[in-house]
Amino acid sequence: MDVLNSKKIQDGVYFHSIIDGKFKFNRISVNFVVKMDGKTASLNALLSFLLRKRCMQYPNMLDLGKKLQELYGASLFNECRKVGDNHLISFGIVSLDDQFAIDGENLNQQASRLLASIVFEPLIQDGKFVEEDVEIEKQNLIELVKSQYNDKRTYSFNQAIHTLFDGQGYGCNQYGDVESIKQIENCRVIDEYMKMLRSAEVHIMFTGRRNFSDCFNVFKKKYDLIDRGDIYKSNNQKYIKQGELKSRVEKDQVLQSKLVMCFASSVEYDSKFNNVIWVMTALLGGTPTSKLFVNVREKLSLCYYCSAQFDPAKGLIFIESGVENENIQKAKTAILEQFDDIKNGKFTQDELFKVVLALENVLKAVGDSAGAIQSYYLSQICRGKIEPPDKKIESIKSITKQDIVEVANLFSIVMDYTLTSEG
User: Rounded to two decimals, what is the model's pTM?
Assistant: First the structure.
């Protein structure tokens, strides 16, 4: 996989490309980065679903569907996710490369123009989006938020973050909340859309087998017509441990209790430690050979699942587990003991080798998918440091046991959240 090549279109607007001859399809995405804020989360999430329905050039779904079929079955996609303190709103298209067109059509240019129409020329009537579309997508968004509540693992994780970051952007759901969605008015949606065009940080990405110049030119012309100002700059503030342990117990009708524990450092650390923390977290609970899986889940049989993940944007380690009610405290104790073992160097070189090998395979797999490539680099762009997968592999291979011990001792528990039964 080639490295990321970047060009600046104008202030706050960047074009990124990765060319790889193995792809038969090109993936183009327009990614808006705005501040994660509880006041606008629902609005931005609604936009991510609303824009892909229709545009001025193709004012109904039938016309839009026909155009996609003409492009050899091209497909549109949208995404809304949280990356640290940033809200990422994405729109994209996947289409066949020109080389495989039967009649030599310029599919890349047509796909770029179609995506540009979707993003920059939505169907607006009397200064508003189509009222029916807004109401339908509001309801769909409400159902999506409700589905997170029904998935108790997702719900518990969201509640844990909210507990630690109440009132802050990182504590918000990327889709907002039901009450905020219900209160959205059409006029506010168009205002937020115009604000996004003018002030969001924008990353246009092309991943495909060859020339991206048509795509670049299409979007450059669009942004040459937009007056930009008060431009948002993607930013993340790492969480530094402060104050007492935050603990919360919530009760609901659940058969299996959910436990989420969060660990943070009490000191500032350089971003170069992120790879060490990533490996350490995987050693703790990120692979089938990890300490949490082997000891807490398998040997002690204290939980149905027990895993750890590292969020480099905030510098936090999260441990999630599903446990029987009577085993909650035992599971907490066992998890902390496994973390202490790593702090004390109680792991073998072979264990470390297996973890690094597993993570190396994860990084090598990034290049297998155009979507995975874009997701990987977008997350890194939002975090402010770009490290190609091959460089990251070199970094993790050089990590020593002492590195792991040193970094593990920077972390301690800052929050635990438990969702348990009402009985």
Answer: 0.94
Q: Please return the burial class of 110, using the count of CB atoms within 10 Å of its CB with bins 0-12, 13-18 and 19+.
A: buried
Residues 76, 316: Cα–Cα separation, whole Å = 34
pLDDT at residue 105, rounded to an integer: 86
- How much is the pLDDT for 423? 63
* Residue 206 near residue 17 (C-beta atoms within 8 A): yes
Instruction: Provide the terminal-to-terminal Cα distance of the chain, rounded to the nearest Å.
Output: 54
pLDDT of residue 3: 78
**CA 129 – CA 292 distance, rounded (Å):** 50
SS3 state at 318:
strand
Task: Look up the CATH superfamily of 246-421.
Answer: Metalloenzyme, LuxS/M16 peptidase-like (3.30.830.10)
Q: What residue ranges of the chain have pLDDT lower than 70?
A: 1-2, 423
Helix residue ranges, H only, 165-300: 178-182, 186-199, 213-224, 274-285, 291
5-224 shares its CATH topology with 246-421? yes
Homologous superfamily of 5-224: Metalloenzyme, LuxS/M16 peptidase-like (3.30.830.10)
Task: Report angle CA 272, 385, 22 to the nearest 5 degrees.
Answer: 110
108-111: list long-range contacts, CB under 8 Å, 24+ apart. 108/26, 108/208, 108/211, 108/212, 108/214, 108/215, 109/214, 109/215, 109/218, 110/71, 111/26, 111/28, 111/71, 111/74
pLDDT at 267: 83
Judged on CB neighbours under 10 Å (0-12, 13-18, 19+), 8 is exposed
| Residue 212 pLDDT | 87
Write down how long the chain is: 423
